[in-house]
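Q: What would this chain look like folded?
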Amino acid sequence: MVEGNSINATCRMFGVGKHTVLRLLEDAGIACAKFHDRYVRNLRVKRLQCDEIWSFIGSKAKNVSAEKKEIGWGDVWTGQRLMPKQN
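A: My prediction, written as structure tokens:
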């Protein structure tokens, strides 16, 4: 999660169940996607910085069974695109 904390560590820090944390993550992701889809439009970009974050769901891709791959386990990348402030 944020600052490199795992889901289990977050559960321990806040004294909540794993499903509570996962539900919060899902709700936050949906809210971010809606915000992005509504407000990020018609950008005029002169400079763009691109980066990515690698992680995994369940386990690393090399260790995932075919059954688990079907439900989304394995490697995942999150892309970031940053535009510096323009005057």
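The two ends are 34 Å apart (CA to CA).
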